[in-house]
Amino acid sequence: QVQLVESGGGLVQTGGSLRLSCAASGRTFGSHAMGWFRQAPGKEREVVAAINWWNGSSQYYADSVKGRFTISRDNAKKTVDLQMNSLKPEDTAVYYCAAQQRGSTVYTEAKEYGFWGQGIQVTVSS
């Protein structure tokens, strides 16, 4: 079992920055692929960024966040972070951290992840 807890959300103005962090339990965090998803009201959950296992050599970003968001992982701390810069009102959503135990590649579909955090609200005001 993997337990995930997100932190770092909140309210920020357009153009501002936030850093989300996801803390994971378990002994084998380094071997997990990780992802950040978001869900806005009335919309489907969508992938924001994903990273593969160990040194995170493979990363994926949704087109809408490329150049603004950065995913990173710290296996010693068992955390995966999402640095969000130049935030826009359309980034407003509940953000979820997800883990996939078969971690050699990046996964971009929600159905591919077996473990989820509870979600954290990010609100960008105009």
Radius of gyration (CA) equals 13 Å
Shape: globular
- Provide the succession of SSEs: EEEEEEEEEEE
Termini, distance in Å? Answer: 40 Å
**Residue fraction in strands:** over 45%
Question: Ranges with pLDDT <50 over ≥5 residues?
Answer: none
How many strands in all?
A: 11
Structural class: mainly beta
Estimate the helix proportion, in percent: under 10%
Q: In DSSP terms, counting alpha (H) and pi (I) runs of 4 or more, how many helices?
A: 0
Mean pLDDT: 96
- Sheet bearing the most strands, described? 7 strands, mixed
Can you put this structure into words, describing what you see?
The chain has no helices and 11 strands. By secondary structure, it is mainly beta. The model has no long low-confidence stretch (mean pLDDT 96).
Which descriptors apply to this entry?
single chain, 126 residues, mainly beta, 7-stranded mixed β-sheet, 11 strands, globular
Concise summary:
By secondary structure, this protein is an all-beta fold. The chain has strands spanning 4-7, 10-13, 18-24, 33-39, 46-51, 59-61, 69-74, 79-84, 93-100, 115-116, 120-125.
Q: What order do the helices and strands come in, and which of them pair?
A:
Blueprint: E1 4-7, E2 10-13, E3 18-24, E4 33-39, E5 46-51, E6 59-61, E7 69-74, E8 79-84, E9 93-100, E10 115-116, E11 120-125
Parallel strand pairs: 2-11
Antiparallel strand pairs: 1-3, 3-8, 4-5, 4-9, 5-6, 7-8, 9-10, 9-11
